[in-house]
Each structure stands twice: as C-alpha cells, then as structure tokens.
Amino acid sequence: MKKKIPLQILKALEPLLKENSSLFEIILQDEYIIKIIDKDKNSDFYFLIESFTTYPKFTLLVNRKPANDFTKSVNRGSVLADQIGNEFKKWLDILEGYEKVNSIFDDPIIEAFASEYYSEFEIIDEDAGIKPFNIKQILLLDEHLENIEINIERHLTATNKVELEEILNEVIELRENLTKRPKKWVIKKLSFVWAKISKQGPVFIKEFLSESSKLIIKESVKFIFNKGIDLLN
Q: Can you give the pTM of this predicted structure?
C-alpha cells in the first residue's frame, strides 16, 4: 500500500503520523492517495490527498475539513509537496485544540474524574501513541470490560437508563478496539468509562472500580504507566 504513495509525501507525514495517531484514523481505500479522518465517531473532519502532479512543480491536491480554526467549512486546493507536512500539522492542531478546549457540552464532573484517572496512568512509552498493548494485557483489559458489560445493566433504572446505556456503548466500543488502537487511545477511553461509572455513585465505584475489581488492570498496566510505579497497589 505505501508504495502507491510518493516517497516524499511519506517522509513528510511520517513523524506527524507517529506522534499523533491517537487523534485520527488512516482509511485504506483506492479512491485517494491518502484518506485520514478524525477518530471521534461524531466528527466529520477529514484530510485527503486526492492526487498529485509533477509539472511544473511537485504539487498535491488536498481536500480538508475544517479549513482552519475559524470555520468548519471545506478547503480544497493545491499544496506544494514540500509543504504538505506543515498543512497536515495545521489540521492536526485543530483536532488537538478540540481535545483540549472546555465547552458547554463537557460535563465538568466527568472531566474531573477522567483527568484524575488518566493522571494516574501517565504514559511514558515512546510508542504509546502508535502501538497497542500486548496480547496478555489486551486479554486482561477485555476481562475487566466484559465484567462491566455483563453486570452494569443490573443497576438500570428509569433515572439512569440513558447514562448506563452510554457507558455500555462505550465499553463495547472499547472492547472492539483493544487490538486496533494504540495504548494512549485505550487508556484515554478507559479513563472516561471509569469517570462515567464513578459519577453514578459509590455503589458503582465499589462494584466496578474497587481495588479488587482493578486487580485485573494492575497486572496489565504496571511497568507501563507513571514511570513504572504501580499506583493501583
């Protein structure tokens, strides 16, 4: 697949693809040279390299959304090949900006819990944004998530139905992506699952996030997070 793409383009994009892969997904297809989309399933942002020409200069036809951080409109136009890295970086900066900014749509309680959990799991692996967990770790994480998926519906009420269904959907999505996403993405998603469970109250924390319940995670994450310190002990 990579030999269908000019080497100069690959070299320009490689460092950005490695460092920021938790933000986007590369879609394998035959219509464009490269198709990259926002990993947020609710987003329609994308970055396409549609075609290229070598005369009079090596130029790429780029189609992106959003065009910049002032609008959500589409921009389609020519970019010199030696500038493609800079253009892609601008698009990535917009995705990262959305990740960091607080808005009226964010639940401050969930954000606080998620930040607390994620801070415990400070990833120091250089490849954490690129490579997945190993098979043993994936199976341990999946067992933990399976326990949540099987048992959380026992707590379903008319009051919490929407919230628990949202948690359940995110758990299912996370399980489906344990072998497809890098470590950093998995831990960020897991932190938000835990945060949403925590918001449901102490009963949920005790059942799903107590120390005994998290032993399965302990073996999976030690030596990986927070400079090797086992914070779950």
A: 0.73
